[in-house]
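Okay, any thoughts on this one?
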Amino acid sequence: MVATPIPAPPHRVRRATPAFRWPEGKRVALVFNIAYEAWSDGEAPGIGPMGNVLKPGYFDTNAHSWASFGAVRGIQRLLRISNANGVKTSVMANGILARDNPATFVDIRDGGHEIVGHSWGMDVIHLYLDEAGERANIERNNEAIMAACGVTPVGWISPRGTGSLISSSLLARAGYTWQGDCNDDDLPAITEFESGHRIVNIPLTMDINDLPHSVRYGNTPGTLVQSFRDILDGTARADAQPFMMDVTAHCHAYGRASGAWTFDAMMKIALERKDVWIATRREIADYALNAPNGMIV
């Protein structure tokens, strides 16, 4: 039986107007995301490099081992590349990794990167939980990250970008500044609840994302870089309005040597452009909350 969803609490959404501009009039706000992911104890991802799915009820050791690369090697490689370029990233991190690899969270913090709440594990999806379960998952994740590195996240993106209808309000009540379980815009918006709480919606754009690019569609790494360049050049010629976009690398996918070079290449392209503001998602949220009158209504 499919559960009946809990309806969203009363709220209104304030969106960017045609007057919206990024700092210094930049055309593009660009976020470099690192997806540092793992699954709960005894769980494995539903997909792996072999593609064909095992019979139901069998633990997929191949997919589990493939996904584990992210914590063993991938996160360190992507952090090295980011640090070498002087780019601060937003790192989507599962709480189970904070429990198991606290030193890595210290490295993320000390590099000036943003740590983003990403649920306890990739299999813990809020859509499947009741309200008490959602609250407990947020708290468990926060506590694990705080214990690892002394930081409490202010931003949240659910596994597969899929929250429940009440996730935004629960996150706002828990003290979160922003959430990214949305892709209905390419500019930030602000959700205000009747309770008096508010949260910034920062869309998670999927155009430059290694996992669908390489695993779902089978494209080569080089075509991702070309697509990135084409979007920046093509949109600049076609449309004068600002927008934001994400560059997302998963530690278990393009954290590998075969794909990590694309993260470096795209950072270098972005750093050379005068029309790009490279920001963390937290910086975008802070900017939205303090935007001049008339930019978000």
